[in-house]
Amino acid sequence: MDLMEMNLTHETNQFIVIQLGEEQYGIDIKYIDNIVRMQHITRVPKIPEYLKGVINLRGEVIPVMSIRLKMGLPVDEINKNTRIIILKLDTHGSIGIIVDQVKEVVTLEVNNIEKVSYDGKDERINYISGIGKCEGGLISLLDFAAVLAE
Q1: Strand 23-28, strand 137-142: pairing
Q2: Which residues contact 96 (CB under 8 A, 6 or more apart)?
Q3: Which of 10, 15, 6, 8 is nearest to 106 (CA)?
Q4: Does residue 127 contact residue 146 with C-beta atoms inside 8 Å?
């Protein structure tokens, strides 16, 4: 097997690892437009509780969601590590998600990502597209089509 063949069999994806409570999740880097510090969020009336409102980022009004509330986790505790990740999605345009912390960027080989099977007990599994194995740990990979559905 020459070098070209080896590269083809080891296709990789990069993910930003975020912290939500005690759990670590991965977000495919292709969706990430920007990562900004927590800032004032303007509340919008009559929207679901998990939608926190909107921010103005360089003249663009971007809706911001609490991914913790959407996934049924306790309310966000805002601190110096809290970030808003701006995602660019084909179907929804730009949306910001509040995360407890941005940890690192990891590169996962496609064959180190396992699909998850839904067992009906844990609602959060709906939002996971797979589990990535890296450096002895496991990272739940977020499926934003499912997270943003509704």
Answers
A1: parallel
A2: 36, 55, 57, 62, 63, 64, 65, 84, 85, 86, 87
A3: 15
A4: yes
CB 139 within 8 A of CB 17: yes
Token pair in block for residue 107: 């590169």
On whether the CB atoms of residues 67 and 20 are closer than 8 A, the answer is yes
Vertex 139, ends 75 and 92: CA angle to 5°? 60
* pLDDT tens-digit series, residues 27-41: 999 999 999 999 999
The pTM of the full predicted model, rounded to 2 decimals, is 0.84
* 135 CB-side CA count, 13 A: 4
The distance in angstroms from the start CA to the end CA of the chain is 47
CA 77 – CA 62 distance, rounded (Å): 21
